[in-house]
Amino acid sequence: MKNWKRRLYVSWICLLGCAIILISCSRNSSEPEPQPAPNEPSLYWGIDTASIIDSSFYRCVEQSFGKPAVAGRYLGTKDGVSHGMTAEEVQLLHGKDIKILLIHNHFNDARGYRNGKDEAREAIENAQKLGVPEGIALFADIEPDYPVDADFIRGWVEAISPSPYEPGIYGDFSQGSPILSAYNGAVNANPKIGEITILWAYQPQVGVTTQKSAPDYAPEVPQQSNGWIWQYGIDSEICNIDTNLIRKEAMAYLW
């Protein structure tokens, strides 16, 4: 009697196991196969401007040039040069899935370690006032005619790197340029600068284009650098914009 019960119990367990396997196979066969995510573009087209971007300005850009993936704007106003970004602009751009490249330009002399640190602190304060989240890059705007040295770049990077933000530098990094010499000097003094700093290159200039007519990505930047953004065209007569190409590596550091 005991053997009969044991055989019945084993048979019941086997039947139950087969039923579970059949149900599982049926569910798996009915579920759609997971689809791979579409490939992320390797390059994005964008603009930067000293003007406030409102709905009218945005329409001008979209109708004349195309839809930007990135818009460069300034942290705070510099009288006679650029309008600082507003909360309304942030809302408008983010509502259109446009990332914001943040620029600090409240100086015209890029020399001295303390000067670099002071400018970085001001940029950090302005970013925090605007509600910029951590991990976003702040770019020091070192124009081609500014005096510049390695100490300023060290001060800028070494003040921003321990903050919630990441260091970036805009400038002319072509061979023989003062900023290239200053950047190389800063990297020689602190190799970490080359590893963490994002470069936004001004050269070469090929002229403003539409999104569809943008050139191949070819900025002049130091080898082994994070040369991820190229401002290839400046001073458009329409809409007051410059045009840029942005590598996908930079997108995570834009707001």
From TrEMBL:
Keywords: Hydrolase. GO terms for molecular function: hydrolase activity. The keyword Hydrolase applies. InterPro entries: GH, Rv2525c-like_Glyco_Hydro-like. It comes from the Bacteria. Residues 70-244 form the Rv2525c-like glycoside hydrolase-like domain. This is Glycoside hydrolase domain-containing protein. It comes from Marinicrinis lubricantis.
